[in-house]
UniProtKB/TrEMBL annotation:
A Pfam family that the UniProt record links to this protein: LysR_substrate
Lipid metabolism found in the keyword field: no
Family label: Belongs to the LysR transcriptional regulatory family.
GO MF entry, a single one: DNA-binding transcription factor activity
SUPFAM superfamilies associated with the record: Periplasmic binding protein-like II, Winged helix' DNA-binding domain
Domain HTH lysR-type intervals: 2-58
Natural source organism: Halopseudomonas xinjiangensis
Domain of life of the native organism: Bacteria
Spans traversing the lipid bilayer: none
This protein's UniProt keywords: DNA-binding, Transcription, Transcription regulation
Protein known as: LysR family transcriptional regulator, chromosome initiation inhibitor
Amino acid sequence: MLDYKLLAALAAVVEQGGFERAAQALALSQSAVSQRVKLLEARVGAPVLVRASPPRATPAGQRLLNHVQQVRLLERDLRSELPIMDEDHAVPRLRIAINADSLATWWAEAIGSLCRDEHLLLDLLVDDQDVGLRRMRAGEVAGCVCSSAEPVAGARSVRLGVMRYVAVASPGFVHGELQGGADCARLVRVPAIVFGPDDQLQHRFLAALGMTGDFAHHLCPSSDGFVRMLRAGVGWGMVPALQIADQLASGELVELVPECSVEVPLYWHYWRHGGGLLERLTQQLTAQASHLLS
């Protein structure tokens, strides 16, 4: 039989990124948290944590974390149906992995009313849209927005829509660095701006123009900072058209190759047995995304 105090210790270590912060979150000593994790491993008969920095779950630990996520959501449903269980008046928290561009554009509008109605708090973990599903697989989150259609075991996925990315730069960058033209030969000789190591949008755009291989680029892991660097003429980059509609309309940014864009499908993944809250969130997202995304 599972001991949920031991599972809570495992979840806290992974979610808080270490034993010290997990101890603070659980109001325990660090040694007590460590002992609970060791006891869980003894009962499971296998390691549940890789003691790295930050710690991460082993395959056995991932299965336990997936279970914890679903139990938390089901317990919330019980609290609403059985008031005696809600004596601590805890406000529910939901951990979700989401790509930065969705967070910077359509996400808040899509879920705002649900958060207010459900008195829901969100822990949003930002990952690139191509890798966010790792969080689900690792048992760290109850749902994620990513570009992969295939759900992990025990989860479902629904298509939300398409995020269209366009290659843009400032007029000054185009005239000064690209000599007024944005063909592939020129683009690979000037700096691009890339969100992070997992960001392949610029690569896909250049591949569509016939270029493969590496190119000079800045790394800027901030959606707002990304656009600011483009406006400052630091480089060129791929941005959601939804995010820069005003800058394109004003001419502050210009599209480099209007006939060529990169379309990224977005999917919502959530646990199959995650209870009523996840189902309501899924309904809200699919309804709102139908007109917020193309």
